[in-house]
């Protein structure tokens, strides 16, 4: 067997196997009763429902991952990439348009393949447990908006990458790196004003006790906010959330209306202090730096492998092309991508602990953060005892139980 093909098939199968093993172990890693720390937040009925929700989510994840993996492997072994390339070349388009059509067709096919699972997750799985509030109209519009944004924003970026690798020679990867970083920074800068409002309505938080408390917290932490907004998260789900968005003077906090409904003023202030902690501890800059470095490394490795005859032979391709090389490298990169994802999750979990500690010190009220975590866990039916492998593979946040135990040290 072609060495490249062996690596790609093996890594796809290995990633799938790790996911399945994680689900099996996770389903068995649920004690019959909630941990003592959650005794006041989870009654017997809520805890039983959370266990069933976790297991149902694992089953759905296993089915989705299995279908995706089988589809990719079958497409590779059936010579699907070469057939698609031949069909698009028959249209006799200009070289750049041919490359964009090839990548666009694969992206569209992947989206269509995942659409039934997305619909099932939204309208069956989430509805079954009382979370879904998305209408069919909103669901369809969200997908159409995402598709349009992908074409408008992603199309030019891919076009530049193709042009650079086609004509810029040894410097191509450096140019691609620079453009990708500038694109990412620009997207982060304009997203709060131009992109996120396409999907949700952002309403300035009205003056009152909550707004004054949040502004006081930010001011005492020396953190400048461009605005505090309420996002209509209840249009899609009953789950609560909050996040920072934007860079520099465009930093704003978005609070889900569901979060405001469920949490007290002190708890929401603790959530804000946690988010401020990420900025004060330099986590945002660290993640940005890691993202920049990783992007550069990916483009450099891509420049080494994307034109390899052996790589194209693995996919049964008759012709070597830059656009197909980009796609094939992404698949070849699968094992490295998995390792980087695991490492990024580990760093993210460490950052969450640090942000929690900052919130506990900044507010002087660790109990508020603990209470907020308990309410969020109960309202979203969080799995309180995920298996370590599941955490290692997928969790960017530590389990709520571990965070509460760490915060409890500030109360003693």
UniProtKB/TrEMBL annotation:
Family classification: Belongs to the peptidase M48 family.
Top-level taxonomy: Bacteria, Pseudomonadati, Thermodesulfobacteriota, Desulfovibrionia, Desulfovibrionales
Subcellular location: Endoplasmic reticulum membrane
Boundaries of every Peptidase M48 domain copy: 204-409
Active site: 275, 356
Transmembrane segments: 6-25, 60-81, 93-115, 147-165, 171-191, 288-308, 320-343
Domain CAAX prenyl protease 1 N-terminal residues, every copy: 34-201
Note on cofactor: Binds 1 zinc ion per subunit.
E.C. designation(s): 3.4.24.84
Topology within the bilayer: Multi-pass membrane protein
UniProt enzyme class: hydrolase
GO biological process: CAAX-box protein processing
PANTHER family documented for this protein: CAAX PRENYL PROTEASE 1 (PTHR10120)
Gene Ontology MF: a single term: metal ion binding
Keywords: Endoplasmic reticulum, Hydrolase, Membrane, Metal-binding, Metalloprotease, Protease, Transmembrane, Transmembrane helix, Zinc
UniProt cofactor(s): Zn(2+)
Protein name: Ste24 endopeptidase
């Amino acid at each position: 067997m072609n060495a490249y093909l062996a690596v790609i098939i093996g890594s796809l199968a290995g990633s799938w196997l790790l996911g399945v093993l994680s689900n099996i172990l996770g389903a068995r890693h649920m004690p019959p009763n909630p941990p003592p720390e959650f005794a006041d937040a989870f009654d017997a009925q809520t805890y039983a429902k959370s266990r069933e929700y976790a297991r149902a989510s694992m089953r759905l994840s296993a089915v989705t991952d299995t279908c995706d993996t089988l589809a990719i492997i079958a497409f590779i072994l059936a010579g699907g990439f070469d057939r698609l390339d031949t069909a698009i070349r028959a249209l006799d388009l200009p070289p750049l348009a041919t490359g964009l059509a090839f990548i666009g067709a694969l992206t569209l096919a992947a989206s269509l393949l995942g659409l039934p699972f997305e619909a099932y997750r939204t309208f069956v799985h989430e509805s079954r447990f009382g979370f879904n509030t998305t209408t069919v109209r909103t669901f369809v519009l969200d997908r159409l908006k995402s598709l349009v944004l992908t074409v408008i924003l992603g199309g030019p970026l891919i076009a530049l990458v193709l042009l650079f690798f086609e004509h810029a020679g040894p410097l191509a990867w450096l140019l691609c790196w620079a453009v990708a970083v500038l694109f990412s920074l620009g997207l982060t800068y304009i997203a709060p004003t131009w992109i996120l409002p396409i999907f949700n309505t952002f309403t300035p938080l009205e003056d009152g006790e909550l707004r004054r408390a949040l502004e006081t917290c930010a001011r005492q932490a020396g953190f400048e906010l461009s605005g505090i907004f309420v996002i209509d998260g209840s249009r899609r789900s009953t789950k609560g959330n909050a996040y920072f968005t934007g860079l520099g003077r465009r930093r704003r906090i978005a609070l889900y209306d569901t979060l405001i409904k469920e949490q007290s003023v002190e708890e929401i202030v603790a959530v804000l202090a946690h988010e401020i902690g990420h900025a004060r501890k330099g986590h945002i800059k660290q993640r940005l730096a890691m993202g920049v470095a990783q992007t550069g490394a990916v483009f450099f490795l891509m420049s080494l492998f994307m034109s390899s005859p052996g790589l194209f032979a693995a996919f049964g391709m008759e012709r070597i092309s830059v656009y197909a090389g980009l796609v094939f490298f992404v698949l070849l990169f699968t094992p490295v991508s998995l390792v980087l994802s695991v490492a990024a999750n580990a760093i993210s979990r460490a950052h969450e602990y640090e942000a929690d500690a900052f919130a506990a010190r900044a507010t002087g009220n660790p109990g508020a953060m603990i209470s907020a975590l308990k309410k969020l866990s109960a309202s979203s039916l969080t799995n309180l005892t995920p298996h370590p492998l599941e955490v290692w593979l997928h969790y960017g946040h530590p389990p709520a139980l571990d965070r509460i135990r760490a915060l409890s040290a500030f109360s003693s």
